[in-house]
Amino acid sequence: MLDNVRLFSQYYKTYGLSAFLYPDVVSNWILNKREAKKRPAFVKSRPNIIQIELTNVCNLCCKYCYRGRLDEFPGVKFGYMKEKDFKKIVSEIKTPVSIGFVGGGETMLHPQMFEFAKHISQIHKPSILSVTTNGTLLDESMALKLIDSNISKLYVTIDAASPETYIKSRGRDYFNKIIKGVQTLVELKKQKASKTPIIGLSFIILEENKHEILDFLKLAISLKVDFIGTLRLPHPVSPEGAFMNKSSLDDIYKKLIEARKYLESNNFWVKESIMYNPEQIFDFQNRKGYFCSTPWEFPQVTWEGELTPCCVIPFSEIYSFGNIIKSSFGEVWNSAKAVDFRRKIKSATPPINWCKKCMGC
Ligand SMILES: C[S@@+](CC[C@H](N)C(=O)[O-])C[C@H]1O[C@@H](n2cnc3c(N)ncnc32)[C@H](O)[C@@H]1O
Ligand code: SF4
Ligand code: SF4
Asked: Phi, psi at residue 252, to the nearest 5°?
């Protein structure tokens, strides 16, 4: 009972009045939080967060991205989610509190991204919609559409503070275009007195860009973005996961301490625990303290409608609970494959090799 009251007040603090307007959403949110902690194999609640991949096609070739391992899965198909499939998926997922348009490709390449976003606002009233993008297509026209849309959060992955470093981590020369796009969006939001989308910049720490962590934070502050989306090491399952030797980590640790002092003196808050507990980076390789609850609260839907356990597994060729275009969400969410995956993830033998090295989405 006490736990329910605590969770209700947590929901209210984060999502405000919708706590009173949508009781069924709130009660599912509470149940999902509780189940994510207990991790039963069969789940009664629906996930609070769902990531939907509009496409797995991409215009960049980032050296650390999971896509770099696709050679291991020769059958992978590439494409764009169809409107009728999107509508079926949206009708199936009921009302998650957050929906993220993100997956194993570049979200903004989907020509119907804004139509799809609008559809979400018509079907799932309280859902908060975010888009994760590499920002390469962010120009004035895109910025205006974003401001007019119901997309409330935009994560722009930059991984650099200079064009030279950008090319090394992301493979192509888009840095200045992306910075201009972000400036345009910030400026237009101001002109139109629009609060949304709130903008977060993301940075995956690599050998090639670790010297720019501090400059990246300075850049974010100078661009007047709202927050830092992600600041973390590449996932250990990624092609770059192996770079993290002791001396790299020691070096990153020192840079994070320096960056923290800078943030404190500038009163800029970053919602990233490694900024405030940089020693966590040393836990990354040995998975110390990692507890995976993602297949309970945070699954991924691929462009073909496959429900995968998490965003680290955005390809159904690696693992899928089932297809929610062909079946109902309820059937897939508790399919034999889903139940087996959840049971095994708690055991000494994880369901797939990727989980052995994982540190979460
Ligand atoms: C797969 S991308 C898709 C969206 C878009 N293309 C982008 O780059 O933002 C989503 C997020 O995952 C991050 N990502 C990709 N591969 C990763 C990895 N191996 N480890 C950690 N984050 C990764 C990207 O930096 C990006 O912020
Ligand atoms: S991180 Fe994003 S932009 Fe880079 S290759 Fe992966 S999907 Fe494409
Ligand atoms: S790959 Fe990682 S996040 Fe995904 S289910 Fe396995 S342990 Fe969890």
From this structure: -65, -40
